[in-house]
Structure formats: structure tokens, C-alpha cells
Amino acid sequence: ATPTAIMVGTGLGARRGILFKNATALETSARIDTVVMDKTGTLTKGEPEVTDLIVEHLSELEVLALAAAVERESEHPLAKAIVAHAAQLHAPVLVADSFRNVPGHGAGAVVGAQRVLVGNRRLMIAEGVEPNALSDRRDELAASGRTAVLVAVDGRVVGVIALADAVRPTAAGAVVALHDAGVEVVMLTGDNEATARRIAGQLGIDTVVSEVLPGDKADQIGRLQAAGRKVAMVGDGVNDAPALAKADIGIAIGAGTDVAIETADVVLMRSDPLDVAVALRIGKGTLRKMR
Ligand code: ADP
Ligand code: MG
């Protein structure tokens, strides 16, 4: 690589808020044929809001108060949305003991004398909670592209909370730009399959890997590499960091967590998914000048 080509590429990127941390990142960008995108916080804004609450046995405010008591102890974006919604509706503030975070599943705690769980179907199965009519409502909400989590009290499902996270305005355009450049786009997410498929459909992404546990994202990258792919991973979260490191290049969303930004080779300061395509194009331009 000629130093001039590298300098030009780095400068072009910087002007658009695309930071290549080193020359290798710029060169590798030119050879990427597969882009793996995290869903939450990368293709979506990562600012979920509660849209629906369906309850059984308890009142809406009771369910919200119990769920919020657990979620107040959690750092998860879904947790923050649930706590904010409970506060907005002036749900009673209850205190949780023995909080447990179950990565990729949800959380649990003891509230008063009750055992409360908030999380996905997998959490409920792991904790021995029987599915009921509310579980079916959960599936319907998920099919509409919302993330739906269950609330259980003492082993019984008492509520479904649906949350919507708006897709970033340029996400669909980014997929088109990558496809035009001959790059395959894969969505990788811990969210459930129905929600993931719906959002992927909206964005024109045909390959979806859903319900991936936080520890397994890097393995998914490894699998693509073993099949001969040159992979860029785009992510924002703490749980994306191992996958960002494993990929041929890791690209972090600027609005993401410090861990993701530190681990990545490229940082998109404007948090715009379209800049993924621009970064790869700059890489190709640099490579051409090197020949
Ligand atoms: P992502 O890859 O989308 O960032 P995570 O691995 O953080 O997903 O979470 C995957 C799923 O686990 C969520 O969609 C949700 O169903 C459930 N979950 C995780 N943490 C929580 C929580 N604190 N409260 C409720 N549900 C949670
Ligand atoms: Mg994310």
C-alpha cells in the first residue's frame, strides 16, 4: 500500500465521520464480501418504547410496577424502556431484592414476597414457567416486528410487554447500496425469530440469524469465515465486541458502547448504516490506487 493512497482514503473517511483506525482496516475493507449487522442499536435506533401491555390476573399497573422493579436493576435498553413507561403511568415504585441478570434472556428478582421474571420465552422455559394464552399474544406481537417480553409472577405468566424500536432512516438504503456493491447482508440478533424476520423483511435483508446468545455472536462470524467469506461485522453493543474482534473488520456505530468502539477497526461517527457501504467503497478506491 502506498502511504499516499492510505492517507487519501483515511482523509476521505474522516471527512464523512468514518474513522479507519489503521491502514489494514482500510485495505481489508476492499475485500469484504459479507456484512453482518447487529439489529438492535445498529439497524434500529436502539431506543425501544413500550407500545402494548396485555395482562391477566393482575392489573396493568401492578404488572408494570413489578416488571419495573426488576428492570430498574438492569442496564438493558428494553429494561430502561419498561422503567420509563412505568414512571410515565405513575406505577407504584416497588423495591427488588436478589436481582439476577440472565444475558440474552432477561432478568429476575424478588419483589415483596413475589418471584418476578421479565424476559423472553427462553427465560420462561429455563425457569419452568408454563406457557398460557398470553404466550400466544406474545407471538402475535412479535410477528408484527415488535419485541415482546413476558412477565411472570411466582411461576405464572401475568403480562406481555411489547416494545418497538424504530429502524434507522437509512437502514434500507444501506442494504440496497451493499447489495449493489455485490455484498451479502446478514442480520444477527438476540431477539426472537418472528421479530427479526419482520424487520429484515422491511429492510430487504434475506439472511437472518436470530435468538443468538451474547456469547455466540463471534461463533456465527467464525462460521461464515470458515465458509470462505471475508466478513465485516457492524455492531454497537457490549455483546457485539467479541464478534467485532473476530470479523475481518469490526465496524462500530459511534453512538454505541465504549467497548464496541474500542474493539472495532472502523468507527462510524454519524451512526449512519449507509456509511458501512461508503467505508467499503473508500477501501476499494484505496486499493485501486495501490495497484
Ligand atoms: P440483542 O442482540 O438484540 O441486543 P440481547 O442479547 O441483549 O439482544 O437480548 C436478547 C433478548 O433477550 C431480548 O430481545 C429480550 O427478549 C431478552 N432480554 C434480554 N435482557 C432483557 C431484560 N433486561 N428484560 C427483558 N428482556 C430481556
Ligand atoms: Mg445492538
TrEMBL record:
GO BP: any one term: copper ion homeostasis
Gene Ontology molecular function: ATP binding; ATP hydrolysis activity; copper ion binding; P-type divalent copper transporter activity; P-type monovalent copper transporter activity
Main location: membrane
DNA-binding in keyword set: no
4Fe-4S among keywords: no
Keyword tags: ATP-binding, Cell membrane, Copper, Copper transport, Ion transport, Membrane, Metal-binding, Nucleotide-binding, Translocase, Transmembrane, Transmembrane helix, Transport
Single GO cellular component term: plasma membrane
Compartments it resides in: Cell membrane
Domain of life: Bacteria
Family assignment from sequence similarity: Belongs to the cation transport ATPase (P-type) (TC 3.A.3) family. Type IB subfamily.
Protein name according to UniProt: P-type Cu(+) transporter
Taxonomic source organism: Cellulomonas terrae
Location of this fragment in the whole protein: 445 to 735 of 816
